[in-house]
Amino acid sequence: MSFNLIRILTLLFTIFTISNVYAQSLNALKTEYLVEPLGLDTPNPRFTWQMNDANTGARQTAYRILVDTDSSQLVKEKSAVWNSGWSKSDANLATFSGQPLKPFTKYYWRIDVLNGNKKTFGKIASFETGMMNMANWQGAWISDNENIKLKPAPYFRNTFNTAKKVKSARAYIAAAGLYELSINGSKIGNHRMDPMYTRFDRRTLYVTYDVTNAIQQGKNAIGVLLGNGWYNHQSTAVWYFDKAPWRNRPTFCLDLKITYEDGTMETIKSGKDWKTALSPIVFNSIYTAEHYDARMEKPGWNTADFDDKDWKDVMFRSAPSKNIVAQALHPIRNVEEIGTKTLKKINDTTYLFDLGRNISGVSKISIGGPNGTIVRLKHGERLYANGRLDISNIDAHYRPTDNTDPFQTDILILNGKGRQSFIPHFNYKGFQYVEVTTSVPLELKKEDLIGYFTHSDVPLTGDVKSSDPVINKIYYATNNSYLSNLFGYPTDCPQREKNGWTGDAQIAIETGLYGFDGITIYEKWLADHRDEQQPNGVLPSIIPTDGWGYEWGNGPDWTSTIAIIPWNVYLFYGDKKLLADCYDNIRKYVNHIDETYPSGLTTWGLGDWIPVKSKSPVELTSTCYYYADVVILAKAARILNKDEDYRKYTELAKKIKDAFNGKYLNKEKGIYGSGIQTEMSVPLYWKIVPQESVALVAENLAKRVEADGFHLDVGLLGTKAILNALSENGYSNWAYKVAAQKTYPSWGWWMENGATTLYENWPIDAKSDISMNHIMFGEIGAWLYKSPGGIKPDEKQPGFKHVLLNPHIVEGLDAFEASHIGPYGKIISSWKRVKGGIRYDIVIPPNSTASMELDLIRDMEIKVNGKTSTNKIELAAGKYVIEHIAE
Questions:
Q1: Contact indicator for 318, 249 with CB cutoff of 8 Å
Q2: CA dist., res. 527 & res. 146, Å (int)
Q3: CA-based Rg of the chain, rounded to a whole angstrom?
Q4: N- to C-terminal Cα distance for the chain?
C-alpha cells in the first residue's frame, strides 16, 4: 500500500471519528431549566440534558451524574459532592440528592450517557448557589424616606477599597420596588425591571450578578437607583393598586461578596454608611410612564470620585417579607430594537413616530434643545382620523387624581447641554405610535426615536410556516401578543392593565409552551398562586394582586390556572415538580367548589367573556372547567401515588359529568343547550361528552359552524375549544376554514386590517374592551401545532418522550411545517402536496419515539423512507420521508 494511500485512509478515519463524536454528543445542559445559572436557592436542583446523536434509533440506556466543586475532578470521573451511580434509564431529567449544597458556591456537574451502542459521552456544566437561607444575608434593608407620596426616585451610593487582586465577585440584591445596580459608573447586567412582581409582603425576590470584571483595584463605587414598580404604586386606577397592603417607599438590601486571589473574602453590604439623594427621575409609575428632568442630573453619581458631601444619610427599614428567595427565571430584557418606520410632522412642535407594529416596551429618543424645553412622548396603539394619537381604547380604567401623570406619556425636560438620549428605567408600555410634542419648535428626524420590544426573554422553542399568508400573519401576531404579555408573569395587556388575569393565561398556556421555553416563568407564577390562595381555596382573578379579584372575575373558568398550568407543564416537560408543588392547592380549590356546589354543577365564574353575539350559560362553561380541574386532580393523584385521592376525585368527576349531561345534553339530538358554538365545543374539548354521543355532538357542531358561515360565534372560553373540538373529532377542514377566515369576525379579519398583534374584541371599532394587544384569543397558536402540525405530547410518556403525530391535511393548504424543541430535542412535522398525494418530512429527536396514524385512502400507498408501510407507523428517533401517494 502506497504512503499516500495510507495518509488518505488515516485522514478519512480521523474525519469519520470526529464526525461520529460530534454526532454523538450532549447538549442543552441546564440546571433548574437555566444555562449555568447563578444564585440558586433550591437544595435539590434539577438537571436536564439532550443527546445530539444523528443515528437512527439513538437512545439513551443509562446515565450518570457527577457533582463537585472542582471541575478537574470531574474530568477524572471523581466527585465528592454527588455520584448518582449509573442509572439504567432513558430519562433526561434528574434531581440532585447528594451532599448538602453550601451557599455562595460554584458547582460543576458532569453528565455521562450510555446509548444503545454502548458508547459513552461526557459533558460538564455548572451552577452556583446563592443565599440558600435568609440568615446568610449581611446587608441591612435601607431606604431614603418613609413618604409614599414622594415622587422622585432615589439614588444610593457607597465606596469601598480593594487592595488585593480580585478572583471573583458576586452582587446579591433584593428589593421591594425596582432597581438598577451600577458599579464604577456602569450598569450591571442587561435585565430590565428587576425584581419580578410578587406579593411583596409574602415573597420577595433577589437577583445575583457576576461583577468580577466591574471591580477595580483601589477605590470603587456602588450605585443603586430605586423605582416604585408595583410596590409603591402612586397612579390610581380601578384596581386599587395604590391601596396595596404592602405599599411603602422602595427599599433594598445588598451584599457584594468579593473573593481575592489569596483566598480571603470580604462582603460590602448595604447599611448606614451609604448615602442617598433624589435622582433626575422626578416621577416613575409602572402603570403610566416616567418623567425625567435632565437639569437635575448628577454626573458621575455612581463613580468613586464623586463628591457626595451634600447627600443624606439612609434610614433602616424592616424587610418587606420573611421569605426572600432567588429569582431563578428568564429575565425581562429589551429583546429587539425596532426603528421608526414612518415619521409624520403634524406641526412645528408635534411629530408622530410609527414603528410599524404593536409592541410592549419603551421608546428611546435622542434630542437636543434649549434648557427647560419640555418633551412629551405619548404612546398608543391607534390614531384618530386626523392622524393624531388616540389612546381612548387603553386609558378607560385610569382614574387620575390630577393632570400631572398623563397615561403612557413620558415627560423629558432638557438641560440645554446638547443632544441627549432618554429611555425609561422603570416602566413599559403597549404601543405602535409615539406622538412627540415639544414646548418649543424643534426639528426631528425618523432616526431620533427607536422602540424596544421588551418582555421576559424566554428562548424560542417553536415555529410554524404555511403556504397560507394569513395563517403566517396570525401566528406572528399571536407570538407578538404572547411575548408582549410576559413580564415575569403572564398579563392580559401591556398598556391598560398589565394584570395577571388568570383566564387569559389558561387560554394561552399551550400556545406559550409550544412556542417558548417558559417553565421558569410559570413556576414563579404558580408560586404567586400559592401565595394568594385563601385558606378556603379561593383564588383571585388577577395574580399577583393587591387584594382585588377575590370577589369578581374568579371561578373555575378563570382560576383553573391552579390545575391547568401545572398539568400542561407536566405534559410538555415531563416534570412533575410543579404538579406536586401545587397538588394541595388544587385539592383545596376543588374541595371548595364541591362543598359550595354539592350538585356537581357550578354557577361560579365569569363565563364566555366578550362573545361575538351568542351568550352561553355560565353554569355550562364553569362546570366544564370544574370537571377539567377534578380530572387533572385525579390524574395528579395517580402520578403522585395518592391512591385514596385518585379514587375520591375519579368518583367526583363522574358525579359532575353525570349531572352536567343530565341537565344540558339532549342525547337524542346530540345537542348541548341551545346548540350555539361555545355550548357545543366546550364540552367536546374538555371531554365531558359521553363517548357514545361524541360523534353526533361533533357533527352538530360542524353543522352549526357551517350555518354560521364558518365564522366564529364564541367568546374567550369558546375560542379555546372551537378549533380543537372540530379537529379532534374529524372536522379539521371546518376548523381550518374558521381559522383562515378573512372576514368579520375572525383572526384573519384583524390581519386583513393591518393587525400585528391579537385584539381584545372581534370588532376593530369596538367602543370598549378594545385593547389591541391581548393574548386571550391566542389558542389558535397552539392549534396550529396540534392540528395541521399534528404534534402532541403523550400523557403516558410526557415531555414528548413519545410524540403523538397526527397532522391534518386540510383543504386550502398546500404545505405546512411545525417544529417544537421539546426536552429531548427538535421535533419537525412537515407536509406538502405532491403529485398523486402527500409527502411528510418528519424528525424525531434522539432518545424519543413517535406514533403516526394516516387515514387510509383507496389506491394510495404509504412508504416510510422508501419502504412500504401500514397506516399505523411507529417511529424511532431519526429523520423520515413518508410518502402517501397513488400507486
A1: no
A2: 29
A3: 29
A4: 50
DSSP 8-state secondary structure symbol assigned to residue 398: B
Query: Which region holds residue 17: left if phi is over 0, alpha if psi is between -120 and 50, else beta?
Result: alpha
pTM exceeds 0.90 for this model: yes
How many CB atoms neighbour CB 5 within 10 A? 9
Dump pLDDT digits (tens) for 843-871: 999 999 999 999 888 888 999 999 999 99
Whether 465 and 479 have beta carbons less than 8 Å apart is answered as no
Q: Are 772 and 757 in contact (CB under 8 A)?
A: yes
- Angstrom distance (rounded) from CA 29 to CA 174: 28
Identify the CATH number of the domain defined by range 462-787. Answer: 1.50.10.10
How far apart, in whole angstroms, are the C-alpha atoms of residue 314 and residue 248? 15
Which residues are registered as beta bridge partners of 31? 34, 47
| Residue for grid cell 450510555 | 114
Give the integer Cα–Cα distance in Å for 834 and 481. Answer: 35
* Domain 333-456 listed as CATH 3.40.50.920: no
Length of the chain: 887
What rounded mean pLDDT belongs to the chain? Answer: 95
Check whether domain 137-329 has CATH 3.40.50.280, yes or no:
no
* CATH code at 3-128: 2.60.40.10
Q: Which residue has the cell 428605567?
A: 425
CATH number at 815-886: 2.60.420.10
State pLDDT tens for residues 13-60.
Answer: 333 333 333 336 899 999 999 999 999 999 999 999 999 998 999 999
What are the boundaries of each domain within the chain? 3-128, 137-329, 333-456, 462-787, 815-886
- The answer to whether the Cα torsion of 306, 308, 311, 314 is positive or negative is positive
E strands of 116-184, at which residues? 120-128, 142-143, 154-162, 166-176, 178-183
